[in-house]
Amino acid sequence: MARPGERLILGFDFGTRRIGVAVGNELLGSARELDPLPAREGIPDWRQVGRLVEEWQPDLFVVGLPLTAAGEEQEMSTRARKFGKRLFGRYGVPCEMVDERGSTGEAKAIARERGHRGSWRDEGVDGISAVLIVERWFVAREGLPREGLTQR
């Protein structure tokens, strides 16, 4: 297990149809998107998740916590927490939750800048959202303001 400041993080943007995935390096403070995981009612193919864990050997999982605009938990918050608990239970890797409010809108803006045409159902922004979630975790660990840290 790597020490804090040197960990490899697998970040997830939980969704019922797709789960965005990103890998982050705490030492570098950067993350990049990986292919999203298809899901059925929020349940991924755990063999695919296992392959990611085996390939990347993460020291920490970070899962986005979908809160209401007022910061309150909702049904998707409960489902995302359950997903995080399952990750920990299956792989024994610690899992932290991160407030993901606004990440989808920010991810869509980044995708538009990259030339996305707006067919969000066919071409989701789950990976970009997962990157933003990992970046928010980095910011929270450093106590920095969130503005200006998104890599595009």
Fold and architecture overview:
The chain has 152 residues and is of the alpha/beta class. The protein has four helices and six strands. A six-stranded mixed sheet has the order 4-3-2-1-5-6, with helices on both faces. The longest helix is centred in the middle third of the chain and has 17 residues, at 75-91. Mean pLDDT is 86; it is low at 144-152.
Give the key terms.
6-stranded mixed beta sheet; 152 residues; 6 strands; 4 helices; 37% helix; alpha/beta; globular; disordered C terminus; single chain
Explain the layout of strands and helices.
Layout: E1 8-13, E2 18-25, E3 30-40, E4 43-44, H1 46-56, E5 60-65, H2 75-91, E6 95-99, H3 103-113, H4 126-142
Parallel strand pairs: 1-5, 5-6
Antiparallel strand pairs: 1-2, 2-3, 3-4
Outline:
With 152 residues, this protein is an alpha/beta fold. The chain has helices spanning 46-56, 75-91, 103-113, 126-142, and strands at 8-13, 18-25, 30-40, 43-44, 60-65, 95-99.
Largest sheet: 6 strands, mixed
Sequence of secondary-structure elements? EEEEHEHEHH
Question: Any idea what the shape is?
Answer: globular
β-sheet strand percentage: 25-35%
Give the structural class: alpha/beta
- Helix tally? 4
